Amino acid sequence: MKVEISVPEAVSIFKEIQEQPEQLYEMIRTDIRETIGQYLSGLMDAELTHFLGRKPYERMQGEANHRNGSYDRNFTLKGIGEVDLQVLP
Fold this sequence. Notes:
Mean pLDDT: 86
Low-confidence stretches: none
């Protein structure tokens, strides 16, 4: 992805950051919370795949142990805030 901005636009962005740095920090915190939520959800999915010995939607003959979807869960990490996860039962 290529982003092009002019010099006056860049100057305006830097001035806005200097005047209101909390907006930039909030954007960074939001991105970190989303990234951590995606990482932890992926980690739990990988753990379940390893535990069951098969990928999602893969069936093994004679096995009745299937994945039953997922549900959303929120929890709070100190210093980061509330993180949204998809928990696989």
